[in-house]
Design brief:
Blueprint (H helix, E strand, L loop, with lengths): L6 E2 L4 E2 L4 E2 L4 E2 L4 E2 L4 E2 L4 E2 L4 E2 L4 E2 L4 E2 L3 E3 L4 E2 L4 E2 L3 E3 L4 E2 L4 E2 L4 E2 L4 E2 L4 E2 L23 E2 L4 E2 L4 E2 L4 E2 L4 E2 L4 E2 L7 E4 L4 E5 L11
Parallel strand pairs: 1-4, 2-5, 3-6, 4-7, 5-8, 7-10, 8-11, 9-12, 10-13, 11-14, 12-15, 13-16, 14-17, 15-18, 17-20, 18-21, 19-22, 20-23, 21-24, 22-25, 24-26
Antiparallel strand pairs: 26-27
Length: about 200
């Protein structure tokens, strides 16, 4: 079902069973897989790819070059700023920001207001510096990483499989698999507690 007020440009590809609510825009060249659900106000730019069964909240922005894996949920007012990859069955809650160059693995959780960054020289484009090379480096999240509400991940860091970032933390360096970090700046306070591991899935 496609709402009368939605705009699906010529050249956009929509799979079967896609639901599109009011005032959604899907640009030419975008690919929206089978069973996706785009809620009101979502914008999907050209060359963005949504695999099957992706759902968006309201007023989500998905820019060119974003690839979103099967079954992932993208919360209201979240911005995927292009040239990034998000895995399968992830949950991005309300108002998450993911910039270019980031890679998020399967089954990750990002809490409300979590922000990833990619610019080690903040405002470098304003000083005429190149955006190539080491100027922009997105964060990389492994399998099953959990990031609490309003946490900030600085550029170029890696978060190992099933590590946990507490709410409000500012992560300035990479985190090993299975570790819990918290604070500003974030520090390692031990292993993720027993019983908190994610169940095995394919």
């Amino acid at each position: 079902m496609i709402a009368d007020t939605a705009t699906i440009e010529a050249g956009a590809q929509l799979g079967t069973g896609v639901l599109v609510e009011d005032f959604v825009v899907v640009r030419a060249g975008a690919i929206v897989g089978d069973g996706c659900y785009l809620r009101a106000g979502t914008i999907v730019y050209s060359e963005a790819v949504l695999r099957s069964s992706v759902q968006t909240g309201h007023h989500v922005v998905i820019r060119s070059g974003s690839v979103v894996g099967e079954g992932t949920l993208i919360g209201t007012h979240t911005v995927l700023d292009g040239d990034l990859s998000i895995g399968r069955h992830c949950r991005l809650q309300t108002a998450v920001y993911v910039p270019p160059g980031c890679t998020i693995g399967d089954r990750c959780f990002l809490g409300p207001g979590a922000s990833l960054t990619n610019d080690r020289r903040a405002g470098s484009h304003m000083r005429g510096l190149s955006q190539a090379g080491d100027a922009w480096q997105g964060a990389t999240l492994g399998y099953g990483v959990r990031v609490g509400a309003r946490a900030v991940l600085l550029d170029g860091i890696s978060l190992g499989d099933e590590c946990f970032v507490a709410a409000g933390a500012v992560v300035t360096r990479s985190v090993a698999a299975g570790r819990l970090v918290r604070g500003v700046p974030a520090v390692d306070v031990g292993a993720v507690p027993p019983g908190e591991e994610l169940p095995d899935h394919d």
